[in-house]
Amino acid sequence: MGRYLPQIDGLRAVAVSAVVIDHCFGPRILVGGHIGVDIFFVISGFLITGLLVEEIDRDGRASLRDFYLRRFLRIMPALLGVSLFVVAALLAGSLVARRLDLWGELRNVLYTLASIMNWARAAGWTGGGFLGHAWSLSVEEQFYLVWPLLLNATAGRLDRRRYAMVLIGAMLALAAWRGFLAWDGASADRLYNGTDTRADGLLLGAALALSGVRRLPAILLKLWPVPLLCLAVVAVSTPWSAPLLAYGGFTLVALCAAWLVALAVDDRAPFVPWLKSPFALWIGKRSYSLYLWHYPILMIFSFAGVRSRLTDVVTVVASLVAAHLSYGLIEQPFLRLKGRFQDLWGKRARGERGVPNSAP
């Protein structure tokens, strides 16, 4: 994990494209864009665990202060920028549309910034409004809060590959728990948004990093189309197969997403050159900002009652412009600040070129 992997940014491009196409054009084109979120989860678990293990191997333990500051500087500036945009849009909209639930939407901003949007949705407090998509960020941030503590406490007690097997076992236990909740009548919102019901990908990504495998067995390499086909089938069949997602479907998607990440890291899969293409890298580097911005822009058109194919195209174009500006004016300066803090504390700086990828 001590090097930058451009193909991971390429995978981010695939993931964010699935989400954006689903939100903007589904069901006309794609209705299972949630597979993009699962890919993001695997990538995050893989990268975060790799960086933590590398630091533990080097220093004996991971610095929680450094880790949480890095996460804050990576996630919060762009998220705060989008949140301020949403607040401004809400205040402007409330002047012309009394049907806008201003206070409810402002609570959604607070749920987002407090990293509990997923539980607010799971509990039925809100549908999320302009920031409903932030549920997945909340899941990741809760993982970032707990996982470094657990890894610091336990990393020296188990062989890394055995530790990976423990995480796979935890993922299977999570799948069983989700199935039980579904059988017991839990709501779709509870099953879809709960951290305990959607952490499959994060656990598998962490297991992949702990396993240390960088070259897949020949059979898994030769079967490289399988995870792609599986994810594609789930993406187009979600409206009919949604009830099955709770009964192992999410686990299957996470397994395929982990297989995809492993293929990309191995670097021998035929699709890796495309993941390293300039277009994929351009989208992938801006994937976080693109994920943040596309949904509020889409919701503005939806709330105004002018959703159409044209406005959906405008949403995508505007989102790309907003993501590019956010990446250059917000993300990059704070990533450089993150590097300066690490230099100040005597840590090896990790930037964007020639060093490990950042998560999410």
How would you describe the overall organization of this protein?
With 360 residues, this protein is mostly helical. About 2% of the residues have low confidence. Helix content is 76%, strand content 0%. The chain is built from 16 helices and no strands. It is globular, with a radius of gyration of 20 Å.
Based on secondary structure, the structural category is: mainly alpha
Q: Give the low-confidence spans.
A: 347-355
- Spatial gap, N to C terminus: 15 Å
Q: Give a quick account of the main beta sheet: strands, pairing sense, barrel closure.
A: none
Average of pLDDT: 89
Q: Report the count of strand segments.
A: 0
Spell out the helices and strands N to C: HHHHHHHHHHHHHHHH
* Quaternary structure classification: single chain
Question: Gyration radius, to the nearest Å?
Answer: 20 Å
Number of helices: 16
Helix fraction by DSSP (H/I, runs of at least 4)? over 70%
Q: State the shape.
A: globular
